[in-house]
Amino acid sequence: MDIIAHAVYGATVCSQKGLAGGRVSDNKRRWYEDVTVYQAALFGVIPDVVSMWPSFLVFIWEGMPGGNFFAWAGGATLIWYHATHSLVVALPACLILGLFRRSLFLPSLAWPLHVIMDAPTHGIGKFQTQPFFPLLDWGVTGINWWEHPGVFAGYWIALPLIWVFIRFWRRRAFFG
Ligand SMILES: [Zn+2]
User: Fold this and answer.
1) Whole-angstrom Cα distance, residue 51 to residue 139?
2) Which residue range is the domain that position 79 belongs to?
3) Number of structural domains, the chain?
4) Cβ(16)–Cβ(34) under 8 Å?
5) Which of 1, 37, 51, 57 lies at a 20 to 30 A Cα distance from 23?
6) Contact residues for 89 (Cβ-Cβ < 8 A; gap 6+)
7) How remote is the CA of residue 25 from the centroid of ligand 1, in Å?
8) What is the mean pLDDT of residues 47-74?
């Protein structure tokens, strides 16, 4: 999934004002006043930022060999990529973080959510999601989102539907 969608899905699912806030949410605050919205968006992009951006800078520094970053990327970049895109790494990281800072536990779940959402949107290849890396090199055979506009459109169209659902769900709770 693209990185902006990861941020928005993280905030939509793993924040207090989002789905994770439950049916009865605090009505005094607007979504943009909820700090967990921003924290979840940040955790949602961590796997891609940590694994790709440093090597992208190296790629630019080396004069963009071949002109395609994704074709060029390999070695340590891929190890980092698989490590950050693994539930074996992400879930314990969330637990440890939650022990030190309880309020960060919920937004940190946007990281494993990133892994779960990348799995069906990446096919066989270098960037296939291996959710149990490094224990297993088994990967989910998904559909590459960057090659299929329908997949890209699908997960973007689903977002406003989730927002409408949350609103309706909470309004019913408010009146009922
Ligand atoms: Zn990713």
Assistant:
1) 18
2) 3-175
3) 1
4) yes
5) 1
6) 83, 133
7) 29
8) 89
| Residue 97 neighbours by CB under 8 Å, 6+ apart | 104, 105, 108
CB-count burial class (<10 Å; 0-12, 13-18, 19+) for 32: exposed
**C-alpha 24 – ligand 1 centre gap (Å):** 31
Which carries the bigger pLDDT value, residue 59 or residue 45?
45
Q: Which residues keep their CB under 5 angstroms from ion ligand 1?
A: 47-48, 118
Of the candidates 135, 93, 130, the residue with the CA atom closest to the CA atom of residue 110: 93
**Structural tokens at position 112:** 């494993």
- Tell me what pLDDT residue 122 has: 95
pTM of the model: 0.92
Q: How far is the CA of 19 from the centre of ligand 1 (A)?
A: 21
Q: How far is the CA of 11 from the centre of ligand 1 (A)?
A: 16
CA distance 101 to 94: 10
Side chain identity, residue 163: W
